[in-house]
């Protein structure tokens, strides 16, 4: 199957599972369910849950056995985007070319829709323990992992640094640290989720983590390049790789990170082609 079709196929599986899980819009209180569904079904690429599924496939686990946790991670991602767009954070009126959640539902409901998606995300991950063949201990480990990867040491901490206006002219090392926390952490734990639920050994987990960190960093560099090239946002005085080093150097750096990510999959021999294709997709994506 061509990789584009593979991605589309996986995206449809995830969309169906999310639709089945999320309360319908006609369930009380209507507004919160409408707001949750508005952002979940507004054109996300589903990169994170797809990574969970690909990793499971690589380790010979059936994707049905990890789909619940994969969808939980997508809900956590959607929560972070809603909160990121709020006026008190990045103050963005648009997300994926559509009015952001608070522009449609107001700030209070957007805040609550984000909260609801974070809670529902963990509910879905916990529900994965009901799947036959999945060890309860793996789910406990996973909940602990995700809490760490999105907490103050990682995603949340990265967001704090990102909105802190004191960090212009940041050193390259500190910029990488920020990208690692803000973006790469959730991408990385999406892969680790697939690995943990497929009983990966330590060597496999280490290789997959390296892959996740590198594609996560490249993902943010490409994201910042797309923002500039597609002129989607008024460029804020934020320290980003392309703002500091220019587009050409950013492209070279993203290339290098993707190569390094693919190299870390050597231990899987030819079995990791799909993860390698996904790494290339991150580099070549247009949005
Ligand atoms: C985790 C408790 C907790 C708080 C969250 C708001 C916040 C704190 C963090 C936001 C971090 C953030 C918005 C990082 C940007 C990551 C990024 C590049 C998102 C875009 O990802 P895509 O392109 O999104 O995969 P789509 O639209 O495809 O879903």
Name of the CATH first level: Mainly Alpha
User: How many structural domains does the protein architecture include?
Assistant: 1
Radius of gyration: 18 Å
Shape assignment: globular
Main sheet: strand order: 1-2
Query: Kindly, what is the distance between the CA atoms of the first and last residues, rounded to a whole number of angstroms?
Result: 23 Å
CATH homologous superfamily identity: Farnesyl Diphosphate Synthase
Protein name: Polyprenyl synthetase
Organism: Candidatus Infernicultor aquiphilus
Family: Belongs to the FPP/GGPP synthase family.
Pfam families: polyprenyl_synt
What does this structure look like?
With 287 residues, the chain is an all-alpha fold. It has a single domain (3-284), classed as Farnesyl Diphosphate Synthase (Orthogonal Bundle). It is built from 12 helices and 2 strands. Strands 1-2 form a two-stranded antiparallel ribbon. α3 crosses α9, α4 (67-85) runs antiparallel to α6 and α8 (155-163) runs antiparallel to α9 (172-196). The protein is globular, with a radius of gyration of 18 Å. The protein starts with a helix and ends with a helix. The model has no long low-confidence stretch (mean pLDDT 95). It binds geranylgeranyl diphosphate (GRG). Residues 44-45, 47, 80-81, 83-84, 96, 150, 155-156, 159, 182-183, 220, 223 line the site of geranylgeranyl diphosphate (GRG). Its cofactor is Mg(2+). InterPro entries: Isoprenoid_synthase_dom_sf (IPR008949), Polyprenyl_synt (IPR000092), Polyprenyl_synt_CS (IPR033749), Prenyl_diphosphate_synthase (IPR053378). This is Polyprenyl synthetase. Keywords: Coiled coil, Isoprene biosynthesis, Magnesium, Metal-binding, Transferase.
């Amino acid at each position: 199957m061509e990789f584009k079709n593979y991605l589309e196929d996986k995206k449809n599986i995830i969309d169906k599972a999310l639709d089945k899980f999320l309360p319908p819009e006609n369930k009380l209180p209507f507004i919160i369910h409408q707001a949750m569904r508005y952002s979940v079904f507004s054109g996300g690429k589903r990169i994170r849950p797809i990574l969970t599924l690909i990793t499971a496939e690589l380790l010979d686990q059936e994707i049905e056995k990890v789909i619940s946790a994969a969808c939980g991670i997508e809900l956590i991602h959607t929560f972070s985007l809603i909160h990121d767009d709020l006026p008190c954070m990045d103050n963005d009126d648009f997300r994926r070319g559509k009015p952001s959640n608070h522009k449609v539902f107001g700030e209070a409901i957007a805040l609550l829709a984000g909260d609801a998606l974070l809670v529902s995300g963990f509910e879905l991950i916990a529900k994965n323990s009901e799947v036959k063949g999945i060890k309860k201990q793996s789910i406990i480990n996973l909940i602990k992992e995700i809490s760490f990867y999105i907490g103050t040491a990682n995603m949340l901490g990265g967001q704090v640094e990102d909105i802190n206006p004191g960090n212009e002219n940041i050193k390259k090392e500190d910029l990488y640290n920020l990208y690692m926390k803000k973006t790469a952490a959730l991408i990385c734990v999406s892969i680790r989720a697939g690995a943990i639920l497929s009983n990966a050994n330590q060597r496999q987990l280490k290789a997959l983590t390296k892959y996740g960190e590198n594609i996560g960093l490249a993902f943010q560099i490409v994201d910042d390049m797309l923002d500039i090239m597609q002129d989607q946002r008024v460029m804020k005085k934020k320290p980003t790789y392309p703002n500091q080093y220019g587009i050409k150097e950013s492209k070279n750096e993203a290339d290098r990170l993707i190569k390094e990510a693919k190299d870390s999959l050597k231990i899987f021999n030819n079995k990791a082609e799909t993860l390698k294709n996904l790494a290339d997709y991150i580099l070549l994506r247009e949005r």
